[in-house]
Amino acid sequence: MADTVEFELVSPERLLFSAPVEMVVVPGAEGDFGVLPGHAPLISSVRTGVIAVYEGGKVDRRIFVSGGFAEVTATRCTVLADEAVALEDADRSQVEARINAARADLADAGNEKERAAAAAELAVAEALLGAIDARPQG
Prior knowledge:
This protein has 138 residues and is an alpha+beta fold. The chain has two helices and eight strands; from the N terminus they run ββββββββαα. The protein has two domains: 5-88, Sandwich (ATP Synthase, domain 1), CATH 2.60.15; 90-134. Helix content is 29%, strand content 44%. The protein starts with a strand and ends with a helix.
């Protein structure tokens, strides 16, 4: 059996990551799940959270995701995310501006559909800010 699993992360805009990895931990709808070589096949929805990619026995990369699906086989883990941001590339000031815009949209919402969309955007932006604040420094 191989000692790596192929991991691919795709957002609507582009392929963000594709490489063999030691392990990947995905924020699934029913809780976080780790994928190692030989994993049982599964399909799961993905909740807002952080994907952790492991190399050398430690987290090598953290990627914020919001929504989507994950498909796992014995040799591969593919995540199709609604939104994905590598935490090392995330800009706190841009995320704060996104939060302020979502709050303004929520305040200006004229109907329930607009309120729901603004509230969902605000929740994702706040979760991204929390992930940025929780990332290890150094």
